[in-house]
Amino acid sequence: MIAQILVDGVTSGAMIALGAIGVTLTYGLLRFANFAHGEFSTWGAYAAMVIAAALGSAGEPIGELTFGWHLIVALLGAVAFTALLAVALDWLLFRRLRRHGNAIVLVIASFGASLALRSALEFAFGPQPYYYTREIAMTVRLAPGMRATWDQIFVLAVALVLMAATHLMLAYTALGRALRATSENPDLARLAGIDVARVVRVTWLLGGGMAAASGVFLGITVQLRPTMGFELLLPLFAAAILGGIGSVPGAMLGGLIIGIAEAAAVPIAGAQYRAAVAFVVMLAMLLARPRGLFGARDA
Amino acid sequence: MTPVLEARAIVAGYEPGVPIVRGASFSLHAGEILVLLGPNGAGKSTLAKAVAGLVRLEGGEVRLADRSLADVPAHDRIRHGLAFVPQTGNVFSGLTVAENLNIAVAILPRRARAERISAVFSLFPDLATARRGAAGRLSGGQRQMLAIARALAVRPSALVLDEPSAGLSPKLVETVMAKLREVRASGVAVLLVEQNARAALAVADRAMILAEGRVAHEGAGASLLDDPAVAALYLGRRVA
After folding, report:
1. What does each C-alpha distance from A140 to A152, A158, B156 come to in angstroms?
2. Model confidence pLDDT, tens digit, residues A81-122
3. Which residues on adjacent β-strands are paired with residue B68?
């Protein structure tokens, strides 16, 4: 059973980690908790559904997967669309409010944006769940007591590649250095010739794109609902706080830990308490080590 | 000779209508160190930040090589040759020494970057040995060196430093000032904002004393040191 908890936990943890990257980047750079971030996941998931529908369907299943190339193309389209949506939301709303320099106003605005984005989807698609495909997901035995669907394996593999790519970009490219530098000290970054407005745009693009991928993966492994991103919000923040707000590797590790903790809670406490686990972990971390696993001392 | 850096009747502050700098002017030539002194709250740092573009001007003009910087945002001034080293938070502590310098040279053509980094490493050999370490782990003096190295990496024509001696031991202050002499010798125009009057005036070609946002006194560095009235009024006991 423990082996199976690990598989389920790591898969959902990878999806949480993708979303948490955006939360932690936005907080690290702009110093506010964006409660609309979960909606980027929902919009990404629905955008992929619309694109797949425009292509005809999720496509002829590839091997043992329940979907085909159409959904993979739709995933790419959804990532691009949601990345632009995130930039547009910043341009229309947060950028204007940032000028006043009040973080509380930004947080409240993000609540409003979250509500508006969720309501818009509910208005357009209704409250009922959707699925990318009606194919039955077959499981494969990975080890004794450890089974996973090929969809889960696909999701985990792509999520890990995206996380590794993000880490490498931040650690070894000029853009990554600029992003880390701006996050640490925006004024000094300006003096060093970094175009901070461009870095902010890149942060939204990256955060929105990752959140979209997380949403599509959630759609593949579970289902699509207008509230899916909102329900993801608590685990996203728990992962970001656990890893240390502002730390991307921390958010990745935090996501995996939250995913495993949630999966472990199901057989122990029941599925109804799954969501509470993220809250308990977040609270415990805030009390014991407010700067998280990898956060800066002054975070 | 056209000054490298010129400030004309600068009026600046952090809140509209509440100026801290009230009409200060200076001009700075290549290979010259101009020291800006004054009591706390005189507006020295605000003037330096206004020159760097970090504080909005309410009046006056900053010119670099006879070109107005009015439309040049802070992040573009370094491209025009104006480098600024703030008093605090002047290195990216979470990044390595090499990454701090790589950020600085990112605005240069790719082929020139490695050459500039090795040039600053030869000026600051301590940094070369610490290049892979986090800047946050450097000593106060090394941090100050890194901050100056980061600014010099792009070969600026003017360098503005806000209290580089703050928090340093007298020996390290001496080292920093010796480096500034080398910087001057390379032809860079240096504006040095300082509280440590004795150390700063020892390297100054000229000095200005700012009081209540205005230039109250100006002269050759050494002459200010010897002026008892100026010393008593603005420079405190150290120089008196």
Report:
1. 10, 18, 62
2. 999 999 999 999 999 998 887 889 999 999 999 999 999 999
3. B63
Domain spanning B5-235: CATH superfamily: P-loop containing nucleotide triphosphate hydrolases (3.40.50.300)
Report pLDDT digits (tens) over B98-134. Answer: 999 999 999 999 999 999 999 999 988 889 999 999 9
Task: Tell me the ipTM for this assembly.
Answer: 0.84
CB contact under 8 A, B106 and A193: yes
The answer to whether A115 faces chain B, any CB pair under 8 Å, is no
Q: Of A65, A12, A6, A59, which is closest to residue A215 (Cα–Cα)? A: A12
Q: Does residue B93 contact residue B146 with C-beta atoms inside 8 Å?
A: no
Classify residue A162: in a domain, yes or no. yes
A195 CB neighbours in chain B (<8 A) are 75
> Would you kindly state where each structural domain of chain B is located, as residue ranges?
5-235
Q: How far apart (Å, rounded) are the C-alpha atoms in residues B76 and B79?
A: 5
Q: Is residue A61 in some structural domain?
A: yes
Report H helices in chain A: 2-30, 37-54, 69-89, 95-98, 103-125, 150-172, 174-184, 186-191, 196-221, 228-243, 248-269, 274-288
Test B86 with A194 for CB contact under 8 angstroms.
no
**Conformational region of residue A184, where left means phi above 0, alpha means psi within -120 to 50, and beta covers everything else:** alpha
Residue A298 lies in a domain: no
Least confident of A142-151, A170-179, A255-264, B231-240: B231-240
* Chain A neighbors of B84, CB-CB under 8 A: 191
Q: What is the CATH number of the domain that holds A13?
A: 1.10.3470
Angle between helices A196-221 and A228-243 (to 10 degrees): 120
